[in-house]
Every structure is written in C-alpha cells, then in structure tokens.
Records
---
Amino acid sequence: MKTTQIKLLCKASVLALSISFAAPVFAQNSNEVVAVVDNNVILKSDLAQSVAEIQRRFQAQKQELPPQQILEQQALEQLIIRQAQLEQVARFNVKPDEKALNDAVLSVASQSGIKSLAAFQQKLDAQQPGTYAAVRSRIAEDLAINRLRQQVVMSRIKISDKDVANFLRTPQGQAALGNQVHVLHIRVSGSGDIQTTAQQIRKEFSNNNDVKALAKEFSSNDVKVDGADMGFRSLSNIPAELAARVSPLDVGQTTDLITVPDGIHILKLIDRKSSEQKAIVPQYQTRHILIQPSEVVSPENAKQTIDSIYKRLKAGEDFAVLASTFSNDTGSARDGGSLGWVTPGVMVPEFEAKMKSTAKGQISEPFQSQFGWHILEVTDTRQQDMTSQYQERMARQILGERQFDTELDSWLREVRNNAFVEIKDPSLDRKNNGK
C-alpha cells in the first residue's frame, strides 16, 4: 500500500516543481554515486533531495510515512525512471521552447509571490549562487520529458472508427458531444495543504452553489481558491481534461478532485440541455504554387522564381499549367495545384491568413511560409456542416485521454527495462530486498 502511495505521489505531475529553494542540494566532489543509469549517474545528494520531496508531499496530505528503506528505494526508482527518460530526451533532441520555459519558471516564482524572473533569480542566487540556474535546468528537463511523453504516448494510442461510433452511442458520448452543461468551477492552488482544502471544499460544494463564498471562506495566505459560475456552455469549450470528468455526471453531482499542474479542480454539474447548434464552418476551394529553397535553389533564386511565375499569371497564363510545371508540392502539382476544399486550422498560419484575405477568383501576391514561397488562388467558397466530423474528432480526443495513462505506464516500463541500471548500494535495490 505504501509503495502504491509513493508511486501516485511521484506520478501526480510531470512538472515536479516542488523544488526546495531554501536548501538546494548540490553535488560535492565527495558525493557518493548510488546508481548508474546509461551514461549518467545518480548521486547520494539527488536521492536525499528526492526523499525530502516525497516526505513533504506525504506530510502535506497528512499521510503516514512508510519505512525509510522503502521510501529510499521508491525515491531511487523514480530517479532512475526520470534519468532513463532524460536519455530519451537527449536521443531525440527534445527541447522546450524558450517562452514555455520562461512561463513555467515564472509560475514557480509566483508561488512565492515573486512576479518577475529577474527578482526570482536574485532571490535564489542570494541564498546560494547557481540555485536559479539549477532550478531553471530542472524545470527545462521536466518540460522536455512532458513533451516527449506527449509525442510518444499519443503515437501509441490507436482508436478505430468502430471505437468512435460505439462511444458516440453511449450516454457519455451524447452528453459530451451533443449537450450543453451548466457548470460551477473551483480551483485550489498555492503552496499550502491544497489537497486537504480541496477535500473540504468538495464536501461543502455538494450542498452549496455559492462558489464566490466558498472561495472566500477557504482562501488563506498560502492557499488560493478561485470560484466561477461557467454558465451554460458546450463541453467543447471546456478543457478536455475537465470536460471528460463532467460528461458522466448526473445533475447535482461534483467531480472527484482533478489534480493538474496548475492546482486542483472541482466541478459541479447544475444542469444540462440539448444543443441544436451545428458546426458550420467556412471552407475555401484553393490551389497554390510552391517554390522551395533547397541545396540547389538559394532563397534568393526561390524568390525570383515565384516573382516570375506571378508576373506570368498576371499576364494571363494558365494557373494549372504553371503549377504542374513549377510547383514543388508534388501532391497538388499533379492536379494543377489543387488542394481541394480547405478548412481553417489545417494550413500553416501564413497560408491560412492569405487564403482568408484573398477574394474568390483572385490570385494572391507571393508570400512566404516555413515551407517556402507560395502563390494561391481561391476558386470558390462555401459554408459546410462539419458537425459529424467535429463530433468524431471530440470522441477521439476523449477516448485518447482515457487511454493515455495506460499507455504512459506501458511506455515507462519499457524505458525502464531497456535502460542500463547499476545500483551501487544493495539495500536500495528492490529486487534484492524482495520489494
């Protein structure tokens, strides 16, 4: 039971941002190596910090701590799995973008009431030089692991057309995709004991719909409670993680505690009603010509070529003939540059913006995207009922959410089993101790 609790605590969030800022642990020259994982090592100080983090989580949730040996074994196992994932991150060169990293660091800073990265760096480095860099590096690793997990796990999830059809026939599918819901929403965040606070709020929430009063009652210096009446809205306008929890509820019921990186969420279903709204979207019948820079075509030559083609089009030459002759998009070039009916959200932003702003029957001026230089023509427009396709897409998303944890566990076991691991201290090896 204790082992399971530790696993759940360590798995609660990929972004394990409960880093000890006041007393960070740094490797010393005399630091012992407790385990080797592929090309890296785990130090005694790493293990001590991991154990301390798990202890803080147990204490925050007012749970009894397991024996020290089990605690250390499980903490080491989590470090091994983390390091094995970091080996995969390096192998596939997965990196968070700078904005996402800055936002994540700033989110951690805000938990201490700090509003800027500069102030956060100054505070941490005043305690011990290099602390800010260590924290930022840890968060960058967490973001990279999260991105890798999303990429790998989503590629493993397989949802058939039959799965989608069966789901859409269930009450949950009908509720999720065909109804609107009136939902009350409470989020609990902060550095205090948010788990206990959230449990107390959920109990009160069953008989009290005044979210503002609940937020005021349970907020404190280290726990922030936000409450909102979301009114009637489609489940598609609620984050997928939350929508999937609301759809099976009966009127008057509340969700279980939903733990995500930004806190703990609780939702209550007040009412639901059938939605007759159709997903009517504009579509553009579009064709284009693409000229891409390459090893033999410089960016300057690509621009000169597209400009030359544009002049020929304006002089009256046939678009389809020029597309078939010059376009580097071989798939559409065979059909005179035709892309068929294009729905917004499919093309890259530069292409979509130009497509929407080009009148029917007109040829756009040359424009650039990540793929090269384009010219496009919108030959027709229409309003298309995409309700069926939209519902199928939502069903796949919900089914994918349901499968994610199972596939993640399977992938983590594979990563762990495929890693070279040497545990130096026999007392920390669960296999040798029958754990």
Note: The radius of gyration is 27 Å.
---
Amino acid sequence: MLRWKSIAVLGLALAVVGCSSTGKKELPPAELKDIKAEVRLDEVWSRSVGDGQGKEYNRLVPAVDGQTIFAADADGRVMAMNRETGQVLWKKDLDLPVSGGVGVGSSLVLVGTLRGQVIALDSASGDEKWRAQASSEVLSAPVVNNDVVVVQSQDDKLQAFELGSGTRRWIYEDTQPVLSLRGTGAPLVTNQVVMAGFASGKVVALDVQRGLPLWEQQIAVPKGRSELERIVDVDGGLSLSGDTLYVVSYNGRVVALNPANGQILWQRDASSYDGVAEGFGNVYLSLDNGTVEAVEESSTSALWTNADLARRQLTGPVVWSSNVVVGDYAGYIHLLSQVDGRFVGRTKVDGDGVRVRPLVVGDMLYVYGNGGKLVAYRLR
C-alpha cells in the first residue's frame, strides 16, 4: 500500500507498484511448482489470535521474551502464550485498532495504534502500565532498552518515552517524501544508540538519551520522473549482526554499514520492502518482484537466485537451521536451502496469507498468518 504525505492513504497493493503508469496488465503470481520435500515440518501447536492483521495493511509481528510469546491482533487483543506449548497465559482486550507491535522488554509488552497511542502492558499479567501519545499512527513494533521505549511513527518521526511512565523524552523528525509505502521498519536500540531507516532512503543513528544525531547515511537516492518511481523507503527494519549493520531499501540498494560511524562497507543494487537475514556468510533478500536472493558478504556477488516465487508478495526471509524461510500472499511458507536456494520444504499455514516474516527462536519457527492463526513448528 502507498501513502500520500498530505492527501490520503491509497488502497493499492504492493504488487501494483511495479506497474508504474504504463497501462500494462500486471502478471499474476507465479503458480507453485511441485517440489521434492527434503525436510518435514512438525506442527507443535496452533492458536487463534483474534482477527489477525485485520482489513488494513497491518504488519503485526509476534515477539518472544524468555519462555513467553506475545501476539496482538488488529482489534486490540493482546495474548501471552507459553512458547513451547501454546498455553494461553493471559489475554487483554484494548478495544482499540492496534497497528504496530508487538514490542517486548524490561517486563513490558508494547503496541501502537492507528490513533498514535503507545500502550505498555505488564508482561507477566497483561495489566496496563501507561499510555502515551505519538505524533501519528504507529505501524511498527515499539522497541525498548532498560531506560526508554522508542517508537517510529508513519510521519517519519522517532520518539522516545520514559520506560516507567511513558513521558516523552525527545522527538526526531526526518523529511517526509510526497509518496511512500504504508509502513515503517522497527528501529534498533541499544543502551547508547538508536538506529532507524526512513522513507527518504536514509539511515540515521541517534544518541538514545537525548535524540541527537550521531551519523546518517543515504542508502538510496530517489530517481525517475514520477513520485511512484521515486519511492525509496527503508521499511523492512535493520539487521545488526556482529559489527555489521545490514539495510535494504525499495528502489535502491542492499548495504552493509559500520554501525559505529555509518560508513558503507559494501553495497549492491536491490529493491525490497522487507529487511534482510544473515547466515553462513551470506545475506538473504526477498526482492519486491518475488525473487529470493543470497548475496555473499565477502564479494557482494549473488551466490544463488530463486525466481520461482515471482509476484507472490513474499515476507522478509529468516534463517532456520540450514534453511531460508519466506511466507507468501496465499499463506504458504517455503523453505529454501542456504547452499543453493533449491526448495526443500513447503506447508500452508493460513488461507488468508502470511504478510509478516516468521520468527525463529532456538529450534522453533513461529508463523503468524493474516487471519490470526499463530503456529509453532519444529523440523524433523
């Protein structure tokens, strides 16, 4: 979906973005080919989390803290479950349209709403601790360290709130383009620094205490004549692995940065509205056209490319054991070998589709479908 800065939200699917204004008929999603399954997925448990992603283009993601997994639906139901058994520990109905979540840490569970509210719940009981008001709708999970909660809102502002009370500490604003994708990536926060990507194609690092910029790096530069062609959002979030920060933009590049100073270590042309995954010395991407790609960190060349999921509106990738996992619009998850990208497994999770990337914790894979089905898997 796209969003005009000062006019309205356009009800367009991401699949339409590639059409531009040429008038050409968009090709349908690729049909799935039969595969020879080399791994078996065992369903450990399954639970329904209310209405799931709802009717808006929400991207609500579950979160794990210790032995508990937390999930929220678009109608404001927040649930805590034992991540090994799926046993429900508590439920909380907020009766508000939740659009950003779930964030967890420092004994708090955090969600954001379409009205810009940030709500903090006690992670052990679900009791509400505080509410705060952000500058606009919150479309990604709030993040937390042991001092502050940081939220990125749709108007390209980063805001920090006191952990104990929800009092706003600081606000940082980036220049918002005329047209952008609907959504934001969740920022990364440490005890000293918060890093975030913006719709301008920029990544910024701020001092977490005062919100002062430490460095910024332009990941993608808008090109083309139309505002549609000039979209360069960094919407997939950032990935920090060791001493390298990975980021990818729409209509731009995948880039490896030094998180200390923002210096570019390497870069490669790419276009994605999801983030990256890292493993086996490679960076894995779900490109906006449905191609899954492995890029070697050492040479920045493509190790392998799998184009058999073209136009299937893939989630961001995750690494699970020796596999790369992506979900698609029809509710399937696909397992690809990290070695050569061949399909090694597939299963259908939710008939309403899977929009948010699966979550890997230990040997478990958690998949949250658009219709509210949360499923835990193990490999056999």
Note: The radius of gyration is 19 Å.
